[in-house]
Design a protein that fits this description.
The complex is a heterodimer of chains A (about 80) and B (about 290). Chain A is built from four helices and no strands. With about 80 residues, chain A is mainly alpha-helical. Chain A starts with a helix and ends with a helix. In chain B, strands 1-3-4-2-5 form a five-stranded mixed beta sheet. In chain B, strand 3 and strand 4 form a beta hairpin. The chains are: A mainly alpha (about 80), B alpha+beta (about 290). The interface of A and B includes residues 30 and 82 of A.
């Protein structure tokens, strides 16, 4: 828990990114193109957030990058499969 | 014993999986994403093979209800209500059937056919004309709400330039999925004298044919089909839910055993997956153009 408290400012920015994405997906649910752009930005943003977060904490390794990349891709696939159904 | 070992290997941080559940390894996550992509392709191919007999969107859309809801929105905006013009409704239905017949979903057909052709086909000589399209909505309320959420569709719906409306609701196979299309035609006839501003984007075409279609006011689409959207939604929820459960277990086990390892932040992934679940729940079926 102490570790999370130390990272709190980082998590605020992450939650902000997610909140903006959810808001955008709801507000622009009539525009598939814009929703796609939001989904791509969100997954890319999450990946970048992960890399920067670990860089700041000096524990960035290749396997960590791969983990963020795979979670981001999975998220993108889930959102796009719903938008285009 | 063997099964318990496999379960632990896949779902719990363990020495056999380098203290990270196998399910959370990048390669496995990539395979899951690939499985979802292949699932979508399979759903599309299955739909085409069954020609919309199995996959589809159950809908209950009455044209008169679409008109009623449209006029409620206009009344709320202080705009005169629209009169139903049977010829416009026939034209709208013809446009819907043309889309199903030629397997496209757009204002302008791939062969270049403009929406205005269908106005002319039913002998509707317009001063102003407009078209809104919707598909895959289960009820008229959600279709009208979606149009109202889009500035361009809302502009059509609330425009004082229009005095008449025609709604066509057609159901059929569109790219292998049984779909309900809603075509909303707006118009003002040449003879109509509504005081308005500049001319809208339509040009008049000569009448080419008499009415050949019949107008159905009946509610359609009562059969039960497998919805591709709900199937995707359900599958996504199950997969993301399992991953979320495994991540929560990961956090608990790692903090209790005080294991130090090189890995990404599980808490961040948990937040990301919770957001994904929210999105899965919030996203609605139905498209408008």
């Amino acid at each position: 828990m102490k570790k999370i408290a130390n990272h709190l400012p980082h998590y605020f920015s992450l939650i902000g990114l997610m909140a903006v994405a959810i808001f955008g997906l709801v507000m622009f649910d009539y525009d598939q193109g814009f929703q796609t752009a939001i989904a791509v930005s969100l997954s890319f943003g999450y990946f970048v957030w992960g890399v920067i977060h670990h860089m700041i904490h000096k524990d960035l390794y290749f396997v960590v990058v791969l983990e963020y990349l795979s979670v981001s891709i999975l998220g993108l696939v889930v959102i796009l499969s719903l938008i285009y159904r | 014993m063997q099964i318990a070992h496999y379960l632990a290997h896949f779902f719990v941080p363990h020495h056999s999986n380098n203290h990270r559940a196998k399910l959370l390894h990048p390669l496995v996550l990539t395979f899951i994403a690939l499985f979802l992509v292949l699932g979508q392709l399979g759903l599309g191919l299955f739909g085409k093979a069954t020609q919309g007999k199995v996959l589809g969107y159950a809908a209950n859309i009455s044209p008169s209800e679409v008109v009623r809801l449209t006029n409620i929105k206009r009344a709320e905006a202080g705009v005169e209500p629209l009169r139903v013009n049977p010829a416009l409704s026939i034209g709208a239905k013809a446009k819907g059937e043309y889309m199903l017949e030629h397997d496209f979903w757009a204002h302008v057909a791939p062969d270049g056919t403009q929406p205005w052709k269908f106005f002319g086909d039913v002998g509707y000589k317009y001063r102003y004309a407009g078209e809104n399209l919707a598909r895959d909505f289960s009820n008229p309320q959600s279709a009208v709400e979606a149009w109202m959420a889009s500035p361009t569709h809302k502009e059509n719906l609330l425009s004082p330039k229009y005095s008449e409306i025609g709604i066509g609701v057609v159901e059929g196979d569109l790219s292998g999925v049984d779909t309900t299309l809603v075509v909303q035609f707006f118009g003002t006839q040449m003879t109509d004298t509504i005081p308005v501003t500049p001319v809208a984007a339509a040009e008049e075409k000569p009448v080419e044919q008499e009415n050949v279609l019949t107008l159905s006011q009946a509610q359609i689409g009562q059969k039960v089909l497998i919805s591709p959207f709900n199937t995707t939604k359900g599958l996504s929820l199950v997969i993301v839910g399992i991953l979320l459960g495994v991540l929560v277990l990961d956090v608990i086990v790692i903090s209790r055993r005080r294991i130090t390892r090189v890995s990404s932040r599980s808490v961040a992934h948990i937040a990301f997956l919770v957001m994904l679940i929210l999105i899965i729940v919030i996203v609605r079926a139905g498209q408008i153009i």
